[in-house]
Structure formats: structure tokens, C-alpha cells
Design goal:
Methane Monooxygenase Hydroxylase, Chain G, domain 1, 8 helices
């Protein structure tokens, strides 16, 4: 969290901004958790609940964006304070997209349940990567709350494991579809779910990168992980 200022109201504004980001993060985290549970059980009702929360996530994004704009206009923050406001604005955009991905997963689940077509596809990789993505999201929000650059750097590296799970599942899914063309329609729905999970991991990684930006003042997007580690340890 930011250092204290002469203006107590400025501190209050920044604390409120960070608190609202974390509250939005909690809602999105719940969306992802419920979406993955719905996938494991093919629970259409739970998937519908996930869909219904999407508007709440969008409202959070709009309100927090308004807070950012007001702080920039009234307080004209500089240095770390400015980086915090910018990072919050970018982080909520990523959280909104995570909410979108959870919404997409839920919609795909409902389609699969509605069609009720039998399929024999081992989706263990999606379940594993889903839990990994949810874990990365939780850790990135925790790193943001504590402004912990070292924890954030670990998240950036761990996202690669989700990518590996996704690629492994795609290879396996191609084999399933080649062996039984009747499952292609359902297999494609499951592929979209797997891709959504991978994107959730990417957005969690992005939020972790914003933590490093606020704490260290360095934009670590699109740089090799070794260089990122060096920046964190400076």
C-alpha cells in the first residue's frame, strides 16, 4: 500500500481504491471457482449463477475506473502513487476479462448439458489447469494487497505451467476427434473452456506484473523472466 501523505483524505482515497480492487478480485475469484466446479460436475444451474454475476463484475470495473479518474484529476498523484492508480486501472481491466472468461466457461457448460451428447474425453488437464489458474489469481491479488514483488515474480513464472497443460490437452483432444468424429462438436466446446482457463492464467500473470511496476517502478511486461527476476532483486 502507498506511503502516508500530509493529506489524510488522499490516503483514504488510495486505500479505498485498493480495497475496491481487492473486493472486485474476490468476486471474480468466486466466479472462476464456481465455473470450474460447474465444469467438474456439469452443473448447469451453478453455471447459470456464474453467468448472472457478470453484470456485478462490470459494475465494479466502471465504478473503480471512475475512482481512478477522480484521483488523477483532484490529487494529481506522482511517482509511486501515480503508478498505483495506473496499475489499478489496468488490473481491473484484467479482472473484468477474467470474469468474461468465467462467464464463457459457464455458457459452454450449459451448451454441453443442453445437447446431452455422450462423450469419452479425459479432461484432467483442464481441471488441473483450472485449479492452477485459480491459485495464480488468488496469489496475484494477495501480492497486490501486500505489494510483494518477489511473490509476483514467482507467479509470472508459474503461468508457464498452465500453458503446458493447455498444449498437452490440445494434442490429446486432436487424437480423440480423429478417433471419433461424432464428438467433434462437444470437443470444440471443451477446447474453448480449456482456452478460457489458459487466458485466466495470463490475466493473473498480468496483475502480478503490475505489482512489480508499482513497487519497483519498472515495466516488466514482455521481458525475459531472468531479466524480470533481476529487476525484482535490485
Amino acid at each position: 500500500m502507498p506511503d502516508k501523505h500530509l493529506s489524510k483524505q488522499f490516503d483514504t482515497d488510495l486505500d479505498s481504491l485498493s480495497a475496491n480492487l481487492l473486493e472486485m478480485g474476490g468476486l471474480v475469484e468466486s466466479q472462476v471457482s464456481h465455473a470450474m466446479k460447474a465444469f467438474s460436475t456439469m452443473d448447469a444451474e451453478l453455471a447459470t449463477e456464474v453467468n448472472n454475476k457478470e453484470k456485478n463484475v462490470n459494475t465494479f470495473e466502471i465504478n473503480i475506473d471512475g475512482q481512478c479518474a477522480e484521483i488523477l484529476a483532484r490529487r494529481q498523484p506522482t511517482a509511486k502513487d501515480l503508478r498505483l492508480v495506473m496499475a489499478v486501472s489496468k488490473a481491473i481491466s484484467n479482472l473484468e476479462r477474467v470474469g468474461d472468461e468465467a462467464d464463457h466457461i459457464a455458457s459452454r457448460i450449459r451448451k454441453i448439458v443442453e445437447v446431452n451428447a455422450p462423450y469419452q474425453i479425459n479432461v484432467a488437464e483442464i481441471r488441473i489447469s483450472g485449479q492452477m489458474a485459480l491459485g495464480l489469481l488468488r496469489r496475484s491479488l494477495d501480492a497486490f494487497a501486500r505489494m510483494d514483488s518477489k511473490a509476483a515474480a514467482e507467479i509470472v513464472g508459474d503461468d508457464l505451467e498452465i500453458d503446458e497443460e493447455f498444449r498437452g490437452f490440445v494434442r490429446k483432444l486432436n487424437s480423440y476427434m480423429s478417433e471419433d468424429p461424432r464428438i467433434i462438436s462437444t470437443a470444440l466446446e471443451i477446447l474453448f473452456i480449456a482456452k478460457a482457463v489458459e487466458r485466466i492464467g495470463d490475466h493473473a500473470k498480468n496483475i502480478a506484473e503490475f505489482v512489480i511496476y508499482v513497487d519497483k517502478g519498472t515495466d516488466v511486461r514482455h521481458i525475459p523472466r531472468e531479466q524480470l527476476i533481476n529487476e525484482v532483486n535490485k
